[in-house]
Amino acid sequence: MKKSLSWRLFILVAGALLGLIASMGLAAPAVASPVQVATAGNYHDGGGDLTLKADRDGKHISLKVIGENFDAKKVEVKVVQFKHNGNYRVVDHRTVWTDRGDDFKYQVKYVECGKSYQAFSYSKKDGWNSSGTIWIKCDRGGHYGY
After folding, report:
1. Centroid of chain to Cα 48
2. pTM of the full predicted structure?
3. What pLDDT is stored for residue 33 in this prediction?
4. 124: closest CA among 38, 44, 37, 35?
5. Which helix or strand (DSSP H or E) is residue 90 part of?
6. Signed CA dihedral, 17, 21, 27, 28: sign only
């Protein structure tokens, strides 16, 4: 009896393993194709150019968010502040209308020294865009750099 039970278990395990191996080989290409298209996401890729610049207005520092070459007329924009410990917070979130479906520009006032900032945008036509990260450094004399 022991021989027949061990053979039965062996055949059961071997069949299950061969079935798994065979199903992985046949199913992977069919499943991988839709996932690959979904992760590519931005198939328009007309893209816009998003720029973030620091500007001094008296004693206060502000950020200029400049978007160029956007295809969409309406763009969702977020400006994010990054802290040294890796945390972040959204300091500005708005929907902007482009000039004739091309450019936009606006200002975020009263940003803090010693922090990093980056702008992100999203529109259905242009997909996701991001600016470069800038770090605002201030000294006691009121000078700033980024």
Report:
1. 14
2. 0.63
3. 35
4. 44
5. strand 88-97
6. positive
